[in-house]
Amino acid sequence: MDREPNIPRLGVGVGFRTPFKSELFLNRSEVDFLEITVDHFLDRGAEGDDELRLLADHFTLIPHGLDLSLGSAEGLNESYLDRVADIVEKVKPPYWSEHIAFTRADDIEMGHLSPLPFTHRAIDAISENVEIARRVIDVPLILENITYTMQMPGAEMTEAEFLNRIVDSTGCGLLLDVTNLYTNSVNHGFDANAMLSALPLEAIVQLHFVGGRWDGDTLIDSHSSATPPEVWDLLTEVLDRAPVKGVILERDENLPPFGEILDELRRARTIWQELES
Amino acid sequence: MSLRELQSQFARLVTDDAYRESLRHEAIGAENRNLPHRLAADAGVLAHAATLKRKRAGAAAVRLPLVRHVLADQFFEQFDQFAGAHTLSREQRYDRDALTFLTWLASRIPVDEQLKGIGPRLSQAIRINRHELTGRLRRAYIGIARVDGRQLPESARFPNGMCLCVWLRCPGSQSLRRFVLRMPFT
How many CA atoms within 13 Å lie on the side-chain side of A214? Predict the structure, then answer.
């Protein structure tokens, strides 16, 4: 079942990063769509506006926010929300995305996605904030699972149950970061496939995938390396079972030659096409 | 503890080293530890705090190439100390963070033995990177580059034949101007 039938299929794309802009345009036919990080364009000025227009003229763009802090019990930063709305209005995407996390509390900006406790109160907080965001941005919002180094105390349910309830309560689709799912399974010792089976697969709209790095015994979600075999396996599993509309390679650090990025996009596209045939 | 209180405590614990350490010390040997004490002693909180700092340090290193060059390995050590006591600002956060770091670093030169030896070079690098960042925040900054005799004949006057140029956009006229920085680039 597809819970978001009005969202078109976008294909396989990449998170836009300025260093590979030229190569991106040289290989336009191999990139189906782009995800832009909203925060990179918030203070953009005239040159950023030009860049946004140039990208939007050639690709479908999906705005991806980092700092709305949808899980904050104290509510949203309305000025930030207005600026996100301005970008969404400019690029007219089929949907936009944010994280199931909080990044701000008591005027402290953490600048990083922090986990929510798996509690009913956290579900209420995110649902209230999503409702506020919807009043300002009238475009479907999808929500992404994050990695966490620790589970917040007070959990009243499992992470899978938490994500299911958030999807139900907010009516949002899910951006399943397959790498985050794998990373958490490694760092917290659970079976990634079992967790996948417990997720609301019919709500999955988009996927993220990439490789991380090891710091001792901990796998870090650094977006800094080629996608490992375990993540390819999970990606294949999700593509086979969920009504996915788009897949994004989310490389940030240690950017490789663009040819390596294209290789990964081709591989994801081939997996998807083979599953469908 | 309410969600709001929990988030407030967590945010403070992962951004304020001194606060976290004081709670951690109080927790040692205590029989009844409350939630903030337990969080302060949690390895995951420490790991999260380290991730936050690493992210800020990476952003600062990109914005402060000369200071990064002069400090070399000390850059991340110094930034770690800075970040443990200064939170991010809400607007233009990483640019502002880098500027605040420069101010903090400049104040450390007279009192930090490791910095004293490279004081003059570091001061010069701080000055240049500050100009660059301030310009960017005013949207006047265009670029900074190392140039040699092929791009700019007058760079031959410098000891190693290279110098630094900054391109700025003039407010009002919006015309582009190039400034040659009167320092050798080493």
Answer: 4
What angle do helix axes A120-136 and B3-15 make, rounded to 10 degrees? 90
Q: Does B30 touch chain A (CB under 8 A)?
A: no
Phi-psi region of A74 (alpha: psi -120 to 50; beta: other; left: phi over 0): alpha
In this predicted model, what pLDDT tens digit does every residue of A121-138 receive, in sequence order?
Answer: 999 999 999 999 999 999
What would the pLDDT profile of B132-183 be if each residue is shown by its tens digit? 888 777 765 566 777 776 666 777 777 677 777 777 666 555 566 677 776 6
Which tokens go with A139? 């475009």
Cβ-defined contact of B44 to A151 (cutoff 8 Å): yes
Token readout for A211 is 């490789």
Give the C-alpha separation, A133 to A105, whole Å.
18
Which among B124, B43, B106, B129 has a CA at the least distance from the CA of A215? Answer: B43
Dihedral pair phi/psi, residue B104, rounded to 5°? -65, -45
Q: Which of A74, A149, A220, A254 to mutate to test the interface with B (most CBs of B within 10 A)?
A: A149
Residue A253's CB is within 10 A of a number of other CB atoms, namely 12
Polymer length in residues for chain B: 186
DSSP state of B157: G
Complex ipTM tops 0.90: yes
| Both structure tokens of B8 | 């407030």
Asked whether the beta carbons of residue A153 and residue B4 sit closer than 8 angstroms, the reply is: no
Contacts of A43 in chain B (CB under 8 A): 91-92
Q: What is the pTM of this model?
A: 0.86
